[in-house]
Every structure is written in C-alpha cells, then in structure tokens.
Amino acid sequence: MASKHDRFIISEELILTGHNFVAMILPFGGLNHWPIQLEVSFIGTPRNRPFRFENIWLSNPNFIDNIERWWIQDM
C-alpha cells in the first residue's frame, strides 16, 4: 500500500506575499521514493516591487557605460 510522506514547510508570510506555488512529482529516483519539486513564482509583474539602488553596482568598472547605453535603448 502506497502512502504520501513528502511535505513542504513554508511560512505563512511567504504565502501571503502573493507567490504562486506548484508542486511536481519528479521521475522515480531509484531509491524508495518519488522526489517532489516545489516551484515558487511571483504573481504579477516585477513592477509591483519598488526599485532599490545597490551601492555595490558602483564598483563595476562598466557601470556608467552600461547605464548610458541602456538609457538610450528603445524599450
């Protein structure tokens, strides 16, 4: 008789932040179980998150050149 013992533990905070969760049963791994995979994706567009500048970006020697190039590109 088969039974399910595979579980995921996630925080309530993660559930409430608007993420989509998909659990998939993967191909039999040869041991005594079928592995499962949890995929977490953001619902909506990344535009919903505020932009945050990271000072570490300034340490990249190409930072200013990249900004200038990206600024003039068509979106």
What does this structure look like?
The chain has 75 residues and is an alpha+beta fold. It has one domain (12-72). Helices cover 20% and strands 19% of the residues. The protein is built from two helices and two strands, in the order H-E-E-H. It has helices at residues 12-16, 63-72, and strands spanning 19-25, 36-42. The chain has a two-stranded antiparallel sheet. The longest helix is centred in the last third of the chain and has 10 residues, at 63-72. The protein is elongated and about 55 Å long. 0% of the residues are buried. The model has no long low-confidence stretch (mean pLDDT 78).
Give the number of domains.
Answer: 1
Distance between the termini: 57 Å
Enumerate the spans where pLDDT stays under 50 for 5 or more consecutive residues: none
Total strand segments: 2
Whole-number average pLDDT? 78
Strand order of the largest sheet: 1-2
Number of helices: 2
Task: State the order of secondary-structure elements, H for helix, E for strand.
Answer: HEEH
Kindly name the structural category. alpha+beta
- Give the proportion of residues in helices: 10-25%
Query: Cα-atom Rg, whole angstroms?
Result: 21 Å
Largest sheet: 2 strands, antiparallel
Strand content: 15-25%
**Oligomeric state:** single chain
